[in-house]
């Protein structure tokens, strides 16, 4: 099952992270699935009582600490602002909006989001590329603070193997106390630019 492989990749990646958005929160007992699901978002209950949410471009994904919406996405074989993809890869640019819905400012990190593509390989995912300087004017910083009730819009740039057009971006709720929560996927097809 491809979703299970994606979930396992997310869980593996989350173990490597020291902390994510939501620092200071002591658990993930959040809103009910009905309150977190935007219209058009499919919800699946997992065996451990958490939920998996699946949306599309334009869907608002409501996590414990913030909402995020994928506004648009495309891929290119060309370099962007001096950043060149590795041989056999393309750059996937994902435009999104993130809004803090938590009661405190939250720190956001490059590794909060992950890109997956349709492939049977266990490593069919990547995190946003980290660059010493922004290669797009609206590229998200590697780390930034999102204040209460504020939103930020920008782009994340990922690398993926050439030949893929169908992708998903995911986010796993995870806090500094090793509590895992709900998992969010936004599925889309990207056009070449």
Describe what you observe in this structure.
The structure is a single chain. The protein is mainly beta and 193 residues long. It contains 2 helices and 13 strands, in the order ααβββββββββββββ. Helices cover 10% and strands 42% of the residues. Strand 7 and strand 8 form a beta hairpin.
Number of helices: 2
Q: How would you classify the helix and strand content by structural class?
A: mainly beta
Low-pLDDT runs: 4-27
> Percentage of helical residues?
under 10%
- Morphology call: globular
What is the topology?
Blueprint: H1 2-16, H2 33-36, E1 42-45, E2 51-56, E3 60-62, E4 66-76, E5 89-100, E6 106-109, E7 114-117, E8 125-126, E9 143-146, E10 151-161, E11 166-174, E12 180-189, E13 191-192
Parallel strand pairs: 2-12, 4-13
Antiparallel strand pairs: 1-2, 3-4, 4-5, 5-10, 6-9, 7-8, 7-11, 11-12
What's a quick, concise take on this entry?
The protein contains 2 helices and 13 strands, in the order ααβββββββββββββ. By secondary structure, it is mainly beta.
List keywords for this structure.
10% helix, 13 strands, five-stranded mixed beta sheet, 193 residues, six-stranded mixed beta sheet, globular, mainly beta
């Amino acid at each position: 099952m491809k979703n299970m492989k994606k979930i396992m990749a997310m869980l593996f990646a989350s173990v490597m992270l020291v902390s994510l958005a939501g620092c200071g929160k002591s658990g993930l007992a959040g809103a009910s699935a009905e309150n977190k699901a935007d219209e058009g978002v499919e919800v699946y209950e997992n065996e451990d009582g958490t939920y998996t949410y699946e949306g599309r471009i334009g869907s608002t994904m409501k996590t414990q600490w913030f909402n995020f919406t994928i506004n648009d996405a495309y891929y290119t074989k060309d370099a962007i602002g001096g950043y060149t993809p590795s041989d056999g890869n393309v750059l996937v640019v994902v435009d999104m909006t993130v809004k803090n819905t938590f009661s405190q400012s939250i720190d956001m990190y490059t590794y909060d989001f992950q890109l997956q593509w349709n492939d049977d390989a266990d490593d069919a995912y990547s995190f946003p590329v980290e660059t010493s300087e922004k290669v797009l004017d609206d590229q998200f910083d590697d780390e930034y603070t999102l204040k209460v009730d504020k939103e930020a819009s920008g782009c994340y740039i990922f690398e993926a193997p050439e030949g893929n057009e169908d992708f998903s971006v995911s986010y796993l709720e995870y806090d500094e106390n090793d509590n895992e929560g709900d998992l969010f996927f936004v599925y889309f097809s990207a056009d070449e630019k």
